[in-house]
Structures are given as C-alpha cells and as structure tokens.
C-alpha cells in the first residue's frame, strides 16, 4: 500500500469509491455521514452508474479507512477504485 492509495489527498481532485447504495435516501445518508469527517469538503455522486460511484474531495489528508468505516456503519459499502481528476 502507498500513501496515495491509503488516503484522500487535498485538492480539486479526489478519490472515487463504488457503493452498493442505490437510492437518493442512501446517497443522502452517505453524504451526511461523510461530510462530518474533518477535512472532507465535497461528495459527488455519479447517479445512473452501476455500481454507484461517488467522489470524495478534501481540504486535508483523510484516511480511506475512515471513509469506509463510516459508510459501513450505515450497512453499506464504500470501495476505493482510484483517483478522480476533473477535466478542467
């Protein structure tokens, strides 16, 4: 494992996760749980993808394990899939 794979690093980019959440209520539960983690500034959901993908953007280093554990408390899963780079 590397620093980049174990953490979400600050900036306009972020880290992509897949989840088994599949409705707006579950998306909102994930958003509410994660936005309260210190350092997380934005969570974007790519609705219509299967499985559902969401991107976490931060303003300080946040451990991927912390994100996974918060989502797991909702009886859902968050699996990191890679880095997110905006187009412009």
Please name the defining characteristics of this protein:
3 helices; four-stranded antiparallel β-sheet; alpha+beta; 27% helix
Descriptive report:
Helix content is 27%, strand content 35%. The chain starts with a helix and ends with a strand. With 88 residues, it is α+β, with helices and mostly antiparallel strands. The protein has three helices and six strands. The protein has a four-stranded antiparallel sheet, with helices on one face. A two-stranded antiparallel sheet has the order 1-5. The chain has helices at residues 3-6, 24-34, 64-72; strands at residues 7-8, 14-19, 40-46, 52-58, 62-63, 78-84.
Distance between termini? Answer: 29 Å
The oligomeric state is single chain
What percent of residues adopt helix (DSSP H or I)?
A: 25-40%
Walk across the major sheet and give the strand order: 3-4-2-6
Summed up, the helix count is 3
Low-confidence stretches at least 5 residues in length (pLDDT < 50)?
none
Mean pLDDT: 90
From the alpha-carbon coordinates, what is the Rg to the nearest angstrom?
A: 12 Å
Count all strands and give the number.
6
Amount of beta strand: 35-45%
**Secondary structural class:** alpha+beta
Order of helices and strands: HEEHEEEHE
Q: What is the 3D shape?
A: globular
In terms of topology, how is this protein built?
Elements: H1 3-6, E1 7-8, E2 14-19, H2 24-34, E3 40-46, E4 52-58, E5 62-63, H3 64-72, E6 78-84
Antiparallel strand pairs: 1-5, 2-4, 2-6, 3-4
